[in-house]
Structure prediction request, 177 residues.
Amino acid sequence: MNTTTAATEAKVTVATIRDWARRGIIAATKVAGRWVIDAASLAHRIEIGARRVARKAKKVVLTADNIKAIGGNEWIRGNYHRIYLNDWTEYAGIEVTRYGTGSISSASLGGRGIANGRAYDLLGAVSKVYFDVADGRLYVQHHGADAYEIRYLDGERNYVDLVARIFAGVRAAVAAL
Prediction:
């Protein structure tokens, strides 16, 4: 294939393809003054590049602005400056529907049904989730165990680290901004 086709396939510039060919990064030969690129070699180079991009996951930096952008409520009193995430269940992957009385009618964790009693336990385990602007850290104030045994409605049992789920959910929401 020619350099233009190779550049389009690799999503790089033609100059990059020529550079790779000169340096031997991809297999290529010159015919009548033009590079002819080996398709298998180019495919291998594209695969290597994709693996590198996957490894270089974007580092998520939590700031007051991006915590507010995902729904945080700012609170300032004296020396305290915090941004509270009142809908922390969303970041933990907990979904609850309620009857008109307020009792839980159904619950799920990560899209899988769980017992209503276990949902009550999870909801009661965390009292606050907030970002402290002074030190730039996210805090989860919780009561009880670090990991909770969950019995899904399909019968499978698993242990869930609720705090880790909240941290991961907040980071994912910020990364999606």
